[in-house]
Amino acid sequence: MTSALLAMLLSVVCSSILLVTVLMGETWTTGTGDVVYNNLHAFGALLPDAPAAQIWKLGHSPLPATPLPEDATVFTSADMPKRGDYYPEVGNGHVATVVQSDTICMNGLYNGHNITSHRARLASPVGYSLTPARPTGLTRSYSLDVGRAIFSESYTAPGVDITLRTYAHRQLTAVLVNELVLSRDDVTQEVTVTTHLNTGQPSDDVKFLNDTPGFQHGQTLEAEYPEIAPPTDFYIKSTADLPPTVTLTPGVSSMTLLHLTAIDVKKEIVQAAFDQALSQFAQGTLLANHVSEWTKVWTNGRIDTKGDVSVARLNYASLYYILSSLPFNGSRPDWPFIGLSPGGLAHGVAGRDYNGHVFWDQDTWMFPPIALLHADLARTITETRLKTLDSARLLAQRTGYQGARYPWESAFTGLETCPAEPYGEMEIHINGDVTVMLRQFWQLTQDKDLMSRGAEVVWETAKFWSSRVTQNPDHTYSIQGVMPPDEYNYPVNDSAYTNSIASINLAFANTLAQVFGKPANQTWADISKNLRIPYDPDLDYHPEFEGYQPTTRTKQADVVLLDFPLMRDMAPSTRKNDLTIYEASTPVGPAPAMTWGMFLLGWLQLGNQSKASQLYDRAVLNAQQPFLVWSENSDGDGATNFLTGMGGYLQLVLFGYGGARIYDDHLTFDPVLITRTTEVTFTGLDYRGCSFDLSYSESNLTLTQTQVNAGHVGLKVKFADSAAWVSLTTGQPVLSKRQSLALMSVA
Which terminus of the chain faces fewer neighbouring Cβ atoms within 10 Å, N or C? Predict the structure, then answer.
């Protein structure tokens, strides 16, 4: 098309007719009503000046291929769940929404002062659903495709398909997309559908300013801590709503209507993403580019199983929901990633799902499986704690302690936002949880660039413990008046978990001092060595705290975490007694989702696969059908889309059945088949700048180094039946019988 002809078309004012042009080799139909088109995109697509313009084209983009198994990654149901809590979400680490809901959430967008801070709710322009009008008798289905990260509502019959796709674009992360596709084989058959938008009520968290034509300029109402940051401004740009009724044009076999919403704190990012999305839609690449980004991530790290598709689906669903709340391309310097909250990015509005706050759930439960499968994303998670170190220092100062004190719950500023006083005051093990995450990252990556900053976190939290402990007459140390992970019992003295993790924090601080050429701190070493860890020699178990009785009711995994992730040395008999005593004291129903996976992990370490299999069935009760959205409790109550439980489940798979353990100088696996499976494959495990695949069946095992990043050396392996270390060659599988193995860097 010549520029003169295009300019002429752009000067046309459409009253009641359709403006039809031919762009880039395909027919486009854009806009109805009184709209003037006077803007060009670099690729030649028409951009509407007014939000009333509707964007659609003849034909449709085919669903892009994916290398993942469809039976394990596409969850289809004839009906949506009866409880809206179990509706799935789509997200990309920047924006997210529960499908068909009236709410959008954005990373870092919080409203509310101090402990009232929560994710700001944005009224959703993307919560669409459908009602077919013609033809009648269509078959309805709803599908969550976690491989492609698309939710679809479809109505089909022979020769007819009506599908509404909703996704958070993975490449253009400011953008949420609705695509309504209508197709038919018989172009004389009427195909009509009615669209419904769940508008909900206006948001109580934001106000809109009328100063930016073509955009909605919003601002949160209350700053979290005004002395640190003011209320947040943001911008929204959307295309027109989908028409209430859509009918296929006579003689047309298929058409696609597009609805876009772009959201960011910077107007120029919103405009650029909006323009690029329209351009990609014109080229037929919008959907393909989204799927391509997800395919890259799945290719780089995933878990596959054979033998029971329900296990495979749990693996993929758990990873999908966590990945949906993570930015794939790192944390933006101008708008950092805040962190993973228990309900993910699409949840956490006022009074729901822990208000979208970040606490030990990220560091202890979600981080370890992500770190093994996606080292780059693990780095992004650790950076959430580095950037709030100054706030942690301020919190320690305000509460009368030295160093840095990480809050039990945090949001935008990194200061305490926990609305319930006992938790924020007493659950100080969060300091150690942050440090253990950093230690795991260091053990897995030896990333000196990040740890040069991370070391400051470890040293400052060590200062906090030094100022928080009490020295006893026998030269031991105690930590008094705390709440352990078992939140039923508080305040207590000498929590086994709290003291153990504080000891690790202090010891790791001196390890990093040596790494970065600083002198060891003898006070830290003394406290670390002499902190009291309760142990009963008569019953050969660890009391949860000083004065604990074995009949005391406990809430969740606590002492059993000494085994993993804390890696505390203990006799097998002690481990067994800890597992037995605390399983009996923990109620099955109300226990949070991640609890039973940790018990399973301990029993597998003791070689009791039968007991582990029983606990597996208990551990997955929280995954709600049909879209495998986890609830916090197995009865369906508690936080929704409970990423904490999904992280615990993935640990059950990788560190339980996979037998993975992380040490200072090596990584080990002791693989066992997951219950009801015949083969397990871990693709894209990351260690010391290398990636490898590990696949095993009942009898055999295959280990393949797949990548060695620039500046790194390869890996070597030692199997249990051999005393020799063998260097791995990239792309060359090493075969053995199924057995335990250790991995190290070659040099």
Answer: C
Amino acid code (one letter) for 379? R
Q: Are 509 and 431 in contact (CB under 8 A)?
A: no
Annotated catalytic residue, options 293, 487, 546, 679: 487
Mean pLDDT of 237-254: 95
Backbone angles phi, psi at 160, to 5 degrees: -135, 135
User: Which of the pair, 24 or 623, is modelled with greater confidence?
Assistant: 623
Handedness of CA 722, 726, 728, 733 (dihedral sign): negative
User: How far is the C-alpha of 56 from the C-alpha of 656, rounded, in Å?
Assistant: 50
Torsion sign over Cα 621, 626, 627, 631: negative
The tokens describing 425, both together, are: 């005051």
Residue 679 among the catalytic residues: no
154, 163 contact by CB (below 8 A) = yes
For residues 376 and 621, what is the distance between their CA atoms, to the nearest angstrom? 31
pLDDT recorded at residue 51: 37
**The residue type at 398:** R
- C-beta of residue 235 within 8 angstroms of C-beta of residue 41: no
pLDDT of residue 699: 98
**What's the farthest any 2 CA atoms get from each other in the chain?**
93
Residue 265 CA to residue 217 CA, distance in Å, equals: 9
Report the relative pairing of strands 700-708 and 715-719 from DSSP bridges.
unpaired
Predicted confidence at residue 569, as pLDDT, reads: 96
Q: Does residue 591 contact residue 556 with C-beta atoms inside 8 Å?
A: yes
Q: What is the percent of the chain where pLDDT is above 90?
A: 89
For residue 422, give both structure tokens: 């006992």
Q: Which amino acid is at 371?
A: A
**């597996």: which residue's tokens?**
616
Q: What tokens appear for 654 in the block?
A: 């990788």
Q: pLDDT digits over 425-449, tens only? A: 999 999 999 999 999 999 999 999 9
Q: Above 50 in pLDDT, residue 41?
A: no
Return d(Cα 302, Cα 695) in angstroms, integer: 12
pLDDT score of 133:
87
Beta bridge partners of 184: 160
Which secondary structure element, helix H or strand E, spans residue 646, and what is its range?
helix 643-651
**Mean pLDDT, the chain, whole residue set:** 92
Q: What is the rounded radius of gyration, in angstroms, for the C-alpha atoms of the chain?
A: 27
CB atoms within 10 A of CB 8: 10
Angle between helices 522-530 and 448-468 (to 10 degrees): 70
State the burial class of residue 301 (Cβ atoms within 10 Å of its Cβ: 0-12, 13-18, 19+): buried
Q: CB pairs under 8 A, 24+ apart, for 30-37?
A: 30/54, 30/55, 30/56, 31/55, 36/11, 37/9, 37/10, 37/12
Q: Confirm if 553 and 492 have CB atoms less than 8 A apart.
A: no
Taking the C-alpha atoms of residue 580 and residue 673, their distance in angstroms, rounded to an integer, is 23
Q: What number of other Cβ atoms are within 10 A of residue 486's Cβ?
A: 24
Beta carbons of 119 and 339 less than 8 angstroms apart:
no
Backbone angles phi, psi at 345, to 5 degrees: -75, -25
SS3 692: strand
pLDDT of 7: 30
pLDDT band at 211 (very low <50, low <70, confident <90, very high): confident
